[in-house]
């Protein structure tokens, strides 16, 4: 699964709107949207901000799917 899809999945698990997460991560809503739909890939710094806002370790967005083995 792509990074953006994983971010969207975690955001939805927490019942957050894109605007809410973007504000929490101090990034623009447009940028978060672009990340989630795969138009852009976040920098490590941005990924860390998003992870912190979601309360998860950023490695969950980088790990390959376990199903692919």
Automatic annotation (TrEMBL):
PANTHER family: HTH-TYPE TRANSCRIPTIONAL REGULATOR (PTHR46797), METHYLPHOSPHONATE SYNTHASE (PTHR46797:SF1). It comes from Paramaledivibacter caminithermalis (strain DSM 15212 / CIP 107654 / DViRD3) (Clostridium caminithermale). GO terms for cellular component: cytosol. This is DNA-binding transcriptional regulator, XRE-family HTH domain. The lineage of its organism: Bacteria, Bacillati, Bacillota, Clostridia, Peptostreptococcales. Gene3D superfamilies: lambda repressor-like DNA-binding domains. It comes from the Bacteria. GO terms for molecular function: DNA binding; DNA-binding transcription factor activity. Residues 7-61 form the HTH cro/C1-type domain. InterPro entries: Cro/C1-type_HTH, Lambda_DNA-bd_dom_sf, TransReg_Diox_bact_type. PROSITE patterns: HTH_CROC1.
């Amino acid at each position: 699964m792509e990074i953006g899809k994983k971010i969207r999945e975690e955001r939805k698990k927490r019942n957050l709107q894109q605007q809410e997460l973007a504000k929490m991560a101090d990034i623009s809503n447009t940028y978060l949207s672009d990340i989630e739909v795969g138009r852009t890939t976040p920098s490590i710094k941005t990924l860390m901000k998003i992870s912190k806002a979601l309360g998860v370790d950023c490695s969950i967005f980088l790990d390959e799917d376990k199903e692919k083995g």
